[in-house]
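[step 3/7] inverse_fold.run input=structure_tokens len=741
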């Protein structure tokens, strides 16, 4: 019994439960006290948590719960009232804080839920941005490929290179198995295989252009997936059981297709397209991506632009080559024309001199012969020779004038002259001829016609003489009327000459001259031919008129130079003609300028005036011309010395010689040099003889050079007795020869 009393009995069940509660409360309190430490650490490390005060409140709740469990350890045994009060207080505070925390969580939980929603939204946005960045990177890659392809395609402007480069670069960039270009044929009814990447199909194969698949591609500017079995996609032979890769096709606009000629391309086209077909490798799971299709579309557009540039370049190069050929041809024609003009002028100059020398002999000797005793028959023959000689001399002058007018070297000699005296001189010249033909000549000058004018007196006189000469030539009876007046502004314009635009002004006027005859007339349809050189009206050509066909042609050019117009009016054969011309003349600026002495343009006849004892020196290298000139001067009573060279002239010339006639085209010392030496030899002007150039050159430069070097005049071959008499009279009277004869 006693041994049984030494063994400690096991704990009662209530005590065991109390023991477990005690241990549990201890660990609960320990856990409760560790949780606030963790929350403090979290709050300290989290700088962005928006609910710190909630965490503080929650920490207080946990601390109070832990304190309650800790105090509860002292309640498992006997305990004092103080422990009970403290325990009660802790539980009350825990209850208050736990209720407040529960109420606060009711308000916080929705906010926490919205934050979670926002977090999910942001995650979705981030994923979307990632996808967009992927697209951007894809587009950048596509753009890089496009720029690379564009650079390669547009690095040349040869259309064949452009198309071939396109296929090669697309095949390399997209790793294509095949790429081909189908071009429309000339008829536009078929597509022809023109370029391939792998050359697996022969170029030149054609398919109808109206196939549904082709119409589908041509109807949109986007790349279109087509069946690998359609005719335009059969670009390689089928190899066993391999599955063909995906195929896309895109249209390529052909701009300015008329410039592209490959095999059988069309010359003209509107809305024409080529077809580009691209095939992925066979037996491959690869598919066309959107960015690859966009790349194909962009490249197709770039090819169209490059082809248009190539077309423009080819057109411009073709135009440039054509222009260069035209410029070369024009330059060659210009050089040939200049050479021809120089040759013609040289020929005319030589022929002028060579023809005038024998003409000088013919006219001079004929005029000398006319001074002798002749039978009527002999005198008639001599007069005929003289008339023929003068006609030939006039023809030579007309040819030379026309030559200078055509090559643009002719210039008007503008000066002030007496207009009324010019018409009076004209009347004196034509009256003898008119009296022989028993024609009456009437001259009518308007009261308002200025007495003096500014213009080319010689060419105006030549024009009037040509027109009046035609009237005398083709009139057998009746009269010839010459009317001159100032043209009014309303009568200046002529509908037959729309290119004639007269402009009235205060410092010039328009002279209108009308020459009306009662001659044979002319058919109206033949009038335009009259102003064509070497052309005559058929109605007049049959007549023995002695006309060369140059007179009116030269008149028209002279009138045009004087800013005027000329025309002829006739009602038909047998009804006479009226020749009308208008020329522009200036008005002298000062009155005293117009009061210049009038010098006749055509030498007047001075009767039988001779110059006995007048010492004259003649220098001419041509023996015939020298002898003829000496004969003319001897006939006029002069004491003549002749020399054949400039050296002889300088040795012989002296103060006793009053006049020196010299041919300026002598071969050894030029005539211009001889003039200079004579002027140096005779420093006193009164002791120096008068120097006159005797030449066959009619150009203005020759006359200007002679006068510039100090010559006293220029006389043009041929020369008759009357002409030489007039020259000597004028020289001795005025000490100068006013006009080249």
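[step 3/7] decode complete -> sequence:
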């Amino acid at each position: 019994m006693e041994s049984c009393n030494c063994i400690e009995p096991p704990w009662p069940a209530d005590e065991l439960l109390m023991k477990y509660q005690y241990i549990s409360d201890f660990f609960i309190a320990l856990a409760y006290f560790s949780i606030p430490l963790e929350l403090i650490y979290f709050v300290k490390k989290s700088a962005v948590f928006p609910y710190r005060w909630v965490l503080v409140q929650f920490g207080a709740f946990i601390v109070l719960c832990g304190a309650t469990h800790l105090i509860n350890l002292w309640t498992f045994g006997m305990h004092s009232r103080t422990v009970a009060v403290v325990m009660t207080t802790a539980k009350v505070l825990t209850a208050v804080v736990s209720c407040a925390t529960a109420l606060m969580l009711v308000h916080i939980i929705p906010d926490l839920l919205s934050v979670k929603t926002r977090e999910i939204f942001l995650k979705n946005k981030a994923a979307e941005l990632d996808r967009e960045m992927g697209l951007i990177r894809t587009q950048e890659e596509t753009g890089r490929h496009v720029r690379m392809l564009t650079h390669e395609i547009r690095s040349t402007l040869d259309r064949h290179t452009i198309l071939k480069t396109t296929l090669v670069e697309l095949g390399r960039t997209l790793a294509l198995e095949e790429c081909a270009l189908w071009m429309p044929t000339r008829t536009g009814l078929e597509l022809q295989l023109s370029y391939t990447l792998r050359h697996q199909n022969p170029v030149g194969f054609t398919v109808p252009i109206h196939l549904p698949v082709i119409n589908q591609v041509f109807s949109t500017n986007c790349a279109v997936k087509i069946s690998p079995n359609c005719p335009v996609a059969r670009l390689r032979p089928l190899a066993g059981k391999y599955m063909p890769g995906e195929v896309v096709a895109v249209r390529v606009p052909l701009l300015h297709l008329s410039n592209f000629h490959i095999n059988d391309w069309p010359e003209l086209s509107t809305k024409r397209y080529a077809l580009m077909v691209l095939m992925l490798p066979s037996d491959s799971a690869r598919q066309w991506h959107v960015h690859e299709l966009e790349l194909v579309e962009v490249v197709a557009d770039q090819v169209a632009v490059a082809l248009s540039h190539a077309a423009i370049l080819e057109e411009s190069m073709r135009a440039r080559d054509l222009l260069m050929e035209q410029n070369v041809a024009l330059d060659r024609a210009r050089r040939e024309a200049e050479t021809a003009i120089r040759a013609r002028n040289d020929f005319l100059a030589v022929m002028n001199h060579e023809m005038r020398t024998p003409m000088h002999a013919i006219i001079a000797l004929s005029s000398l012969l006319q001074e002798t005793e002749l039978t009527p028959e002999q005198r008639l023959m001599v007069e005929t020779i003289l008339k023929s000689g003068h006609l030939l001399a006039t023809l030579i002058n007309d040819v030379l004038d026309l030559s200078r007018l055509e090559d643009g070297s002719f210039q008007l000699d503008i000066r002030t002259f007496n207009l009324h005296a010019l018409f009076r001189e004209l009347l004196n010249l034509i009256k003898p001829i008119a009296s022989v033909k028993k024609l009456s000549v009437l001259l009518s000058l308007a009261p308002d016609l200025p007495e003096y004018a500014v213009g080319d007196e010689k060419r105006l006189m030549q024009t009037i003489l040509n027109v009046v000469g035609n009237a005398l030539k083709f009139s057998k009876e009746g009269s010839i009327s010459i009317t001159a007046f100032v043209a009014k502004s309303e009568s200046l314009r002529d509908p037959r000459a729309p290119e004639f635009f007269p402009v009235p002004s205060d410092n010039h006027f328009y002279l209108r001259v009308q020459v009306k005859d009662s001659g044979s007339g002319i058919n109206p349809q033949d009038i335009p031919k009259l102003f064509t050189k070497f052309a005559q009206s058929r109605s007049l050509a049959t007549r023995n008129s002695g006309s060369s066909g140059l007179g009116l042609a030269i008149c028209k050019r002279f009138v045009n130079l004087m800013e005027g117009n000329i025309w002829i009016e006739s009602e038909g054969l047998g009804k006479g003609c009226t020749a009308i011309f208008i020329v522009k003349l200036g008005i002298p600026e000062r009155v005293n300028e117009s009061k210049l002495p009038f010098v006749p343009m055509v030498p007047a006849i001075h009767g039988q005036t001779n110059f006995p004892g007048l010492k004259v020196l003649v220098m001419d290298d041509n023996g015939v011309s020298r002898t003829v000139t000496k004969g003319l001067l001897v006939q006029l009573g002069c004491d003549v010395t002749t020399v054949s060279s400039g050296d002889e002239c300088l040795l012989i010339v002296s103060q006793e010689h009053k006049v020196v006639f010299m041919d300026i085209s002598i071969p050894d010392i030029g005539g211009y040099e001889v003039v200079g030496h004579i002027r140096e030899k005779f420093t006193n002007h009164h002791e120096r003889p008068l120097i006159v150039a005797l030449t066959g050159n009619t150009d203005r430069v020759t006359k200007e050079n002679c006068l510039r070097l100090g010559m006293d005049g220029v006389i043009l071959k041929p020369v008759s007795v009357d002409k030489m008499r007039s020259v000597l009279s004028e020289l001795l009277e005025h000490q100068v020869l006013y006009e080249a004869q």
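[step 4/7] annotate
The two ends are 194 Å apart (CA to CA).
The CA atoms of residues 133 and 207 lie 44 Å apart.
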